[in-house]
Amino acid sequence: MALVGKKAPSFVAGAVINGEEIVTDFSLDQYIGKNHVIFFFYPKDFTFVCPTELHAFQEKLAEFEKRGAVVVGCSTDTEETHLAWLNTPKDNGGIQGVTYPIVADASKTIAMNYGVLAGEYEFDADTQLWSFKGAPVAYRGTFLIDKEGIVRHESINDLPLGRNIDEYLRLLDAQLHVEKYGEVCPANWEEGEKAMKASTEGVIEYFSNN
């Protein structure tokens, strides 16, 4: 079920912040009323595609922050595994230098609540045992959450498909434009281009904010 237009599922979990400090009570609720959030899931620490994405988000971090947004990552690994990966140099497949928070979802409940877990638990009534069918990791889910804690965009990539980080900057720009001007953004809209607004007669009018 899509989360767009709904309150982002709340959680309290362990995380690594500033690339070096483990905390036990991290929550996205701390950003409500303050920041937009780009919350993204990735499958697993110490893999191949994942570090390229985490470094790509880090490379664009100043651009997100300039727009008043924070970036937060999450996987089903533990916070200790996150920290070990953060202490591994980039040339060795690590993510040393990443400074935004990385949440630990070892219980997989956050991934389940956001609808990105690449599998599901099944109960066998005969054996009275639970089993897991699929991959016990998160798909590459990405969520744009506004200052009120409402999900405004979500996208989910299959495990082999890396993201385009610039697209999330474009979507953030569009969301900020909608909030500021009350206009809607057409296909391929980018900051500085004409937006659209429905008039009282139902006719689409174009506006430029250059």
From TrEMBL:
<dbReference type="InterPro" id="IPR050217">
    <property type="entry name" value="Peroxiredoxin"/>
</dbReference>
<dbReference type="Pfam" id="PF00578">
    <property type="entry name" value="AhpC-TSA"/>
</dbReference>
<dbReference type="InterPro" id="IPR000866">
    <property type="entry name" value="AhpC/TSA"/>
</dbReference>
<protein>
    <recommendedName>
        <fullName>Thioredoxin peroxidase</fullName>
    </recommendedName>
</protein>
<dbReference type="Pfam" id="PF10417">
    <property type="entry name" value="1-cysPrx_C"/>
</dbReference>
<dbReference type="InterPro" id="IPR024706">
    <property type="entry name" value="Peroxiredoxin_AhpC-typ"/>
</dbReference>
<comment type="function">
    <text>Thiol-specific peroxidase that catalyzes the reduction of hydrogen peroxide and organic hydroperoxides to water and alcohols, respectively. Plays a role in cell protection against oxidative stress by detoxifying peroxides.</text>
</comment>
<keyword id="KW-0560">Oxidoreductase</keyword>
<feature type="domain" description="Thioredoxin">
    <location>
        <begin position="2"/>
        <end position="177"/>
    </location>
</feature>
<dbReference type="InterPro" id="IPR036249">
    <property type="entry name" value="Thioredoxin-like_sf"/>
</dbReference>
<dbReference type="InterPro" id="IPR019479">
    <property type="entry name" value="Peroxiredoxin_C"/>
</dbReference>
<dbReference type="InterPro" id="IPR013766">
    <property type="entry name" value="Thioredoxin_domain"/>
</dbReference>
<comment type="similarity">
    <text>Belongs to the peroxiredoxin family. AhpC/Prx1 subfamily.</text>
</comment>
